[in-house]
Amino acid sequence: MAKKRIGILTSGGDCAGLNAAMRAVVHRSHILGWETIGLINGTASLLDENPEFRILKPNDMSGTVLRAGGTILGTTNRGNPFAFPMPDGSLKDRSGEIVDGFRKLGLDAVIGIGGDGSFAILKRLAEQGNINMVGIPKTIDNDIGMTETSIGFDTAVSVATEALDRLQPTAASHDRVMILEVMGRDAGHIALAAGIAGGADVILIPEISYSIDKIAEKIQAVKESGRNFALVVVSEAVKKEDGSKLEMTYQGGEKRYGGIGYYVSQKLSDATGYETRVTVLGHVQRGGAPTYNDRLLASAFGVKAVDLVKEGKFGRMVAWQNRQIVDVSIEDAIKAYQDVDLDGTMVQTARALGISLGD
Amino acid sequence: MAKKRIGILTSGGDCAGLNAAMRAVVHRSHILGWETIGLINGTASLLDENPEFRILKPNDMSGTVLRAGGTILGTTNRGNPFAFPMPDGSLKDRSGEIVDGFRKLGLDAVIGIGGDGSFAILKRLAEQGNINMVGIPKTIDNDIGMTETSIGFDTAVSVATEALDRLQPTAASHDRVMILEVMGRDAGHIALAAGIAGGADVILIPEISYSIDKIAEKIQAVKESGRNFALVVVSEAVKKEDGSKLEMTYQGGEKRYGGIGYYVSQKLSDATGYETRVTVLGHVQRGGAPTYNDRLLASAFGVKAVDLVKEGKFGRMVAWQNRQIVDVSIEDAIKAYQDVDLDGTMVQTARALGISLGD
Amino acid sequence: MAKKRIGILTSGGDCAGLNAAMRAVVHRSHILGWETIGLINGTASLLDENPEFRILKPNDMSGTVLRAGGTILGTTNRGNPFAFPMPDGSLKDRSGEIVDGFRKLGLDAVIGIGGDGSFAILKRLAEQGNINMVGIPKTIDNDIGMTETSIGFDTAVSVATEALDRLQPTAASHDRVMILEVMGRDAGHIALAAGIAGGADVILIPEISYSIDKIAEKIQAVKESGRNFALVVVSEAVKKEDGSKLEMTYQGGEKRYGGIGYYVSQKLSDATGYETRVTVLGHVQRGGAPTYNDRLLASAFGVKAVDLVKEGKFGRMVAWQNRQIVDVSIEDAIKAYQDVDLDGTMVQTARALGISLGD
Amino acid sequence: MAKKRIGILTSGGDCAGLNAAMRAVVHRSHILGWETIGLINGTASLLDENPEFRILKPNDMSGTVLRAGGTILGTTNRGNPFAFPMPDGSLKDRSGEIVDGFRKLGLDAVIGIGGDGSFAILKRLAEQGNINMVGIPKTIDNDIGMTETSIGFDTAVSVATEALDRLQPTAASHDRVMILEVMGRDAGHIALAAGIAGGADVILIPEISYSIDKIAEKIQAVKESGRNFALVVVSEAVKKEDGSKLEMTYQGGEKRYGGIGYYVSQKLSDATGYETRVTVLGHVQRGGAPTYNDRLLASAFGVKAVDLVKEGKFGRMVAWQNRQIVDVSIEDAIKAYQDVDLDGTMVQTARALGISLGD
User: Fold this and answer.
1) From the candidates B116, B141, B154, B294, which is the catalytic residue?
2) Catalytic residues of D, which ones?
3) Neighbours, chain C (3 or more CB pairs < 8 A)
4) Choice among A21-25, A127-131, A289-293, D61-65 with the minimum mean pLDDT
5) How confident is the model at residue B184, as a pLDDT?
6) Which of A133-137, B257-261, C208-212, D100-104 has the lowest mean pLDDT?
7) Which residues of B touch C68 (CB under 8 A)?
8) What's the whole-model pTM score?
9) Between A and D, how many residue pairs show a Cβ–Cβ distance under 8 A?
10) Which residues of A139-164 are buried (b: 16+ CB within 10 A; e: fewer)?
């Protein structure tokens, strides 16, 4: 087989395991005698006259890189190529320039590590420019369809569970209700998994509407059972009780979206009279060292992505299904959004254990 | 449904997640209005005139217990009831006494958390005494058949991977080959998973015969590529190069089995001239705090085990198959030993990444 | 020496290492042939007709307790005995009842594990009731005078540093300024130590007034040096730029104090145009498993406290000074509040490394 | 002040915090307008025609480096310059060549991060070549004199304590005596600190002769108290009961020093009849991510070392004494070996808690 030159890039929100996936791509390509080019800061850098890139060698990836969170390539942060923000405030379709950028690099294929948003853009670019593209799914939210899990989810849940492990003893020492706000932009997978594993009494996810009264009842029942503390996990995607988005206002007048954990805290405290405290875990859920599961998945995904290039199968996303690495149509994957299955094992287990899901 | 009284016990080698499984059983039983009795130190304690047990309440299990390694019940350590070691050195069948012990406790069912060895004994006792039995699989070795994974494996691999993460920088600082001996009595699952995730160059598992020459070649290739260190993972179940068991002798004349990591270290050092160092992780792989995955699995298993009792399905083992909790015949599970699939994703990924499996 | 009966209690905010200190007291007392009584929920429980307590035995404290955060005794949460909140809303001096409670328990001495607030109350009770009292200092804030360090500080800094380790890669992947709000009610010790260890570019502590302009300059300098991310640590005790307290208002009208991290985030984003993100670590800093340092300190403190009882030295607090365990007047310790020494090693090191302290 | 060019190197066994110290040197030098040159693989690389070095910039050191174990410079591994092993097996004094190598680099000063062995060599080279030298002490063993602590010790004790935390639950589940062999070439500091913090019943250190009978008595007493497990920590520097060195022999005839944990295990098992198990932690104690304490110490040491260069104070070692960074004569520090103080706080605390030190 002729020597190939493949490009790799990371796109969208970062998470743990991106570097491990890149490492697998580089090792696998190297074994096939190919060259791997890492694009710095994603597709948008191709707009620059001299796009920044790195030739990635196996030994660059063998020490701390495998074990590090984040992405050594950086990620796209300049905007959608099809509606790119210009200095004058207007939006411009610059996809043509990016496609040209790809051509100049002389790549046989591009492996994009991203989420559904990134894949939608990459796919459009690939079609426009006749670029051979393969996708590797990553998202801490685990909401990409057609794959049971994506890179970054396992680590995010680990970090969130560990936070509950640290909140439990202090809750018990002070007779408190502890509220942990975890990530999950639209789906409640992190909250659900960490909540069950971390011994939560209440788990609020965006897939299920909640009532403060119901939660307060559960907290009361816990207290009446003789236990002096309770743990509540709230997905950041959860809305106010009436279904509207929370807005927070600072004294100075600034506004920002978010902080639903504080809202639930206040409401619960009002409804029950118990002391509540809030932790907003935030980005520590993204940046942790990848768990072994995320590294295994990333390794298997990376290998498969290179092998798809070898077989000439493009427009595909690698996926994990029933203990196998498979490939699926990237188009189908984008459409098949995966939120929490209300009849699935996780929800069933939570309900069977008496955990309140707010409804 | 009438109120039931169920017994629970842990049997065989301990691992992380046992307490989490018991907690799920207790919570689930409590919701059904049942009582859960924890047998202290497994079946053998039923030989005592007043067998030790604990009535387990949900709130006993809600704080640190969920998060703790080991088993709060202790585990059987006095021997096989069918060939019980007597003070005079003889072996006696005392199964009848144990069956009587179960009867005296007035249990509607017994949930045993164990491995295949424990299940074989429990099943025989159950048949002999007409006891309603359900099994929950646990083993750090992940070698129980008919379930994709068992309680304790995820934590063991996590601990082993973390050890590799700590060995890599010191290996790189000193131009060394680091050998990590991990657990796995008969199967190489821990070594394989931790090795891939931890960036090992060589992984030796009992399922694959190895040649020191082949390993030495790999190490040489690593060094020639310009990398100054290498990582080797050896499963404790690996034998000497010629297939015989290693025996170690101390100066004083004592003998013990084990320490295959030291053997590989010596052989590799002789063959390559490189400095080698050994770490024997040992029981830290059992006792760590359970990972969230082990706690999720334990929670789902515990719920299912109680529900099997509710449905009157006995002689069954709960199992994890394709993202579902199912139940299988405990007899079939015992027979279906699960070692490393030489054509599976893990072995394929390792080979595709250029990791030497010694062959 | 006659057999003694000593009481032990934990008071004020919990932290890691309280159980380790209790364990040392119990072990040491046991060796001397004494009995240790643990008061549940601190002094206020002595107001109950049958105050809750536990006889603590060495083996109760030998397994997971040593390693667990929080306090197995619970902590005072019902209010100041000298101004106790009554059901009708009034405040009543109930110190006499508490002193009576102590007498009824027949204690030879009481060892209180607390901070300066707790010590002030315990000392007053001790004087009023002629109670033999010894104090063991604990606070995550490390602001108790006359001891170089107190139980809980080391763990809190560890947890905060670990958060920075997780924020750094995600900051670098996305060209972001990450703001971490850490605990420290009045003193900036946690922020300063975690900030230096975690590679912060800016550390804001209540002991030093800051200017947003100065911080923005530092962030600009970092970016101009070619680094694409920055880390900012803010102590929760920090006020607004003009020295006033921040108040946050939710849409619904609720108010709460806190969230200074969000304030700094907004101001920095406005001043620099960079993307900022906030993490509020909250109570995870209290509840983590104690570090070995906190356990060593707790062990040495517990031993010394019992030995002070043996020697009949009361009204004393154990303390750590220049690698020695000493005892100091509890009165002096309360007066000698310890905030960050602006000429000390930590501040000097921070400045020498070019870390901005906001001034 | 004129711009300076300073060299930095790491020497001897690696440990956690070396990179953090280098980072502090680089940041501090940069602020002073100086250049920092990192020598790859220590002094011996100066024997090469083109010695390998790296110009170190602040931003190279700001991300993962601060948080990583090991040393990015590598460490001396080719031998003593004054008796350098030649290909023909002879030893040759090559110090002159190394001194010449330093000269060619045009360095104003050299900062060496090492232990007492490295300092002895560096000092001799410095004197011979009139080189301006400053030392930063590092050793996981904490046996360098005139400084209370050295870089790497805190992390090593953390890792060892964590191992005990994982061994305790499995010991308790199986009624076992767990033996943990920890590092410490000549001094027992790691064993003593980890043993107290980790709840050991017996701690064996080289500074105290032990008797198996005494240890067996302690284990018996633990069991008779009703506790079913025990934890034993053994420093690798401990000898056989009769004071001679242990030698282990493999079946194949190879010999190696070490494994004293196995020896103690066998003897204890013989003496008490209890089941014993061994873990040899090995190099995971060196390579872990540095604790915040090691990073704080490394930061303060790095700053001080540069400031000594600025002040023209050479032949000095930076040191930590009574919460201050000071400098001491490197000659004095080498002479003042620091083993465990048998009358110090740690030994007193251990004895007061009833921990057996084997005597």
Assistant:
1) B141
2) 141
3) A, B, D
4) D61-65
5) 93
6) B257-261
7) 64
8) 0.95
9) 3
10) bbbbbbbbbbbbbbbbbbbbbbbbbb
Does C353 contact D24 at a Cβ distance shorter than 8 Å? yes
Confidence of residue C22 (pLDDT cuts 50, 70, 90): very high
pLDDT band at A352 (very low <50, low <70, confident <90, very high): very high
Separation in Å, CA of A290 to nearest CA in chain B = 9
Catalytic residue among A141, A201, A327, A339: A141
> How far C140 CA lies from chain A's nearest CA (Å)?
12
Sites in chain D below the pLDDT cut of 50:
none
> CA nearest A20: which of A140, A152, A114?
A152
Mean pLDDT, rounded, of chain C? 93
Instruction: Give the 3-state secondary structure of C161-197.
Output: HHHHHHHHHHHHHHCCEEEEEECCCCCCHHHHHHHHH
Q: Which pLDDT band, with edges at 50, 70 and 90, does B46 fall under?
A: confident
Run of H or E including A292: helix A292-311
How far apart are the two ends of chain B, measured CA to CA in Å? Answer: 59
C130 touches chain A (CB under 8 A): no
CA separation for the pair D93, A90 (Å, rounded): 72
Question: Do B354 and A307 count as a contact with CB atoms less than 8 A apart?
Answer: no
- Give the burial class of B150: count Cβ atoms within 10 A of its Cβ; 0-12 exposed, 13-18 middle, 19 or more buried: buried
At residue B249 the predicted structure's pLDDT band, cuts being 50, 70 and 90, is low
Touching B: D residues 166-195, CB under 8 Å: 166-175, 178
Contact D299 C27 (CB under 8 A): no
Q: Which residues of C are catalytic?
A: 141
Tens-digit pLDDT profile for residues A157-203: 999 999 999 999 999 999 999 999 999 988 999 999 999 999 999 99
A218 CB within 8 Å of a chain B CB: no
Q: Residues for chain A: how many in total?
A: 359
Higher pLDDT, D250 or C114: C114
Structure confidence at residue D133 (pLDDT):
96
Q: Over chain C, what HEC string results?
A: CCCCEEEEEECCCCCCCHHHHHHHHHHHHHHCCCEEEEECCCHHHHHCCCCCEEEECHHHHCCCHHHCCCCCCCCCCCCCHHHEECCCCCEECCHHHHHHHHHHHCCCEEEEEECHHHHHHHHHHHHHHCCCEEEEEECCCCCCCCCCCCECHHHHHHHHHHHHHHHHHHHHHHCCEEEEEECCCCCCHHHHHHHHHCCCCEEECCCCCCCHHHHHHHHHHHHHCCCCCEEEEEECCCCCCCCCCCEEEECCCCEEECCHHHHHHHHHHHHHCCCEEEEECCCHHHHCCCCHHHHHHHHHHHHHHHHHHHHCCCCEEEEEECCEEEEEEHHHHHHCCCCCCCCCHHHHHHHHCCCECCC
Domains and CATH numbers, chain C: 5-151+290-335 (3.40.50.450), 155-285 (3.40.50.460)
Return all residues near B355 (Cβ < 8 A) that are at least 6 apart.
Answer: B195, B196, B200, B201, B202, B203
Per-residue pLDDT for C2 more than 80? no
CB C284 within 8 Å of CB A166: yes
Cβ–Cβ gap D353/C154 under 8 Å: no
Could you tell me which chains touch chain B, where touching means 3 or more CB pairs under 8 A? A, C, D
- Pairwise CB contact (< 8 Å): C158 & D291: yes
Minimal-distance CA residue of chain C relative to B288: C64
Mapped to the 3 state alphabet, what secondary structure does A11-42 carry?
CCCCCCCHHHHHHHHHHHHHHCCCEEEEECCC
Distance CA D247, CA D260 (A): 9
Q: How far D71 CA lies from chain B's nearest CA (Å)?
A: 6
- The residue to which tokens 């995010």 are assigned: A156
